[in-house]
Amino acid sequence: MKPDNLLYPAPKGLYCELGNFYIDPVQPVERALITHGHSDHARAGHGHVLATRETLDIMRLRYGDGFCGASAIARFGETIAINGVRVTFRPAGHVLGSAQICVEADGTRIVVSGDYKRRADPTCPPFEPIGCDVFITEATFGLPVFHHPDDEREIARLLMSLKQFPERAHVVGAYALGKAQRVIALLRRQGYDEPIHIHGALAKLCDYYQSQGIDLGDIRPATLGPASRQDFAGMIVIGPPAAFAERWARRFPDPLASFASGWMLIRQRAKQRGVELPLVISDHCDWAELTETIREVAPAEVWVTHGREEALVRWCELQGIPARPLHLVGYEDEGE
Ligand SMILES: [Zn+2]
Question: From ligand 1's centre to the CA of 168, what distance in Å?
């Protein structure tokens, strides 16, 4: 079977006509397979959702019990037949519950990797390379200029700053699903055992991660009463990016604004957000990791989606690997 007949980009997302299902559709559909819980991939309102248990839990936490008509759990490595199409979920290493989805029929195999990363992450199982005919890769940081430094070094910079400025509250912006918990877990790994205060918008997901056995240590609400303002001096406070726009961060004593994102590599972005201590910590691959992954997976063909599609397509062509951009719309990289 030609890969194009197995899966193709339709207005609502990647569509498998034979199986009559979509992967990460951007509009409500009858049957959806979801790679992970970030809001641009996991939307409410589908008739039936197949996803990992964690992704289903995360969707329920974010959208409520009625987030879909019916759901089924996909276990890693288990193959499920949908109208004769075989689908298998494998870890993607992006956030808790994140999966690549392997779609097979008539001897043709396409791997939809969703969002993925290759670095060790204490909050989720690592990406598993799967041989395939077509590898669909994201390209969020798909330009040679993107190089993500070692995340332990970035966390060490935050801890260094705390020592240097013990009177200042270190207010760290991090996305609510994945990044916030990873930053906390990385801090704990470096032996930081002070309470970490979190914005209310992070509470449900941090609690969920803890319930899944990911130890985040002493997490407390960053509730600010008039008497307790000084209690935050020299402490780490974590909030979602939107909270920074609301000037939430400025209520803490002499706040030092930090932000954990792959985009912090771009000095201009840090400046625009008024970030004093940018931390380059990404839940996506940098350029070297994207290209190494393509080499390792060694697919017959690469399809590139959301991000800098053209540069990665060009790189594949120079390596003699047929490649093309998918031009899917509606993915805004919520998790970065
Ligand atoms: Zn994501």
Answer: 32
- Cα 114 from Cα 322, distance rounded (Å): 20
Q: Would you tell me which CATH number, out of the four given (1.20.1250, 3.30.30, 3.40.50, 1.10.890), belongs to the domain 151-279? A: 3.40.50
Give the Å distance between the CA of 224 and the centre of ligand 1.
Answer: 31
pLDDT in tens, 230-255: 889 999 999 998 887 777 888 898 99
Q: How far is the CA of 113 from the centre of ligand 1 (A)?
A: 11
**Alpha carbon separation from 242 to 85, 115, 175, 273 (Å, rounded):** 41, 22, 9, 11
Its sign, for the CA torsion 156, 196, 281, 36, is positive
234 CA from centroid of ligand 1 (Å): 31
- In the reported structure, the alpha carbon of residue 226 is separated from the centroid of ligand 1 by a whole-number distance in angstroms of 37
What is the C-alpha separation between 175 and 173, in angstroms, rounded?
A: 7
Q: Centre a 10 Å sphere on the Cβ of residue 75 and count the other Cβ atoms it contains.
A: 11
CA of 56 to the centre of ligand 1 (A): 15
Helices (H), the chain: 3-6, 53-63, 151-164, 179-189, 203-211, 241-245, 267-272, 287-297, 309-318
- Cα–ligand 1 centroid distance for 106 (angstroms): 30
Q: Give me the pLDDT at residue 250, please.
A: 83
Distance 36 CA to ligand 1 centre (A): 7
Q: pLDDT (tens digit, 9 = 90+) per residue, 3-23?
A: 999 999 999 999 999 999 999
Helix, strand, or coil here: 70?
strand
Q: In angstroms, rounded to a whole number, what is the distance separating the alpha carbons of residues 236 and 232?
A: 8
What pLDDT digit, counting tens, does each position of 158-197 carry? 999 999 999 999 999 999 999 999 999 999 999 999 999 9
Q: Hey, which CATH number is domain 3-145+284-325, 3.30.450.200, 3.60.15.10, 1.20.120.450, 3.40.50.970?
A: 3.60.15.10
Instruction: Tell me, in angstroms, the distance from the centre of ligand 1 to residue 164's CA.
Output: 34
